[in-house]
Amino acid sequence: MTTIAVLGNGRVGGSLAQALVRAGHEVTVADRTPGAAADAARAAQVVVNATPGDGSLERLTALRAELRGKILVDVSNATLDGPDGLPADLLYPGSSLAEQLQEALPETRVVKTLNTMLFPVMTAPAALAQPPTAFLSGTDPQAKQVVRGLLADLGWRPEWITDLGGIETARATEAAILFVPHVIRSSGFAPFAISVTR
Fold this sequence. Notes:
The chain is an alpha/beta fold. Helices cover about 35% and strands about 20% of the residues. The longest helix is centred in the last third of the chain and has 13 residues. The mean pLDDT is about 95.
């Protein structure tokens, strides 16, 4: 059992929290109440960033002390939205939210994953017609191993998980968000994921 704090109680954070509880973990979901995020992060071994990506860096930098030594699983995408509310551009072109977080929080082990799919797939990967891919980006091998275990608890089979390497590889997976609005406009809001097939 891992003690996990989920920051963000929207659709992404809520569904991840429920699935992790079902898997037997002790999960706290931090809402926007003042101090809730700090309290949750302080007590956790693993912290999941499911906050809106355009404000994540500021929110998490404020938790530097609470996140020291912790694993931070970043599932958010930092985007600039278009008039229809869908992602239109990247907030950190030439970089990524994960890289920005790792630079701002050098004593925290950041692992990027689950950001290349619509949120229902995060906790039900086997529901798609073809196997999806969950990518891992991060500098710390041990942290990635812990996250790999959490993905398994969410239903991800080992062969569906691809370790891309260091945290700088997150800029590739974060750029995949630019597919999303086009796929939604052409096919509707049905669950889908980026997948590498071999």
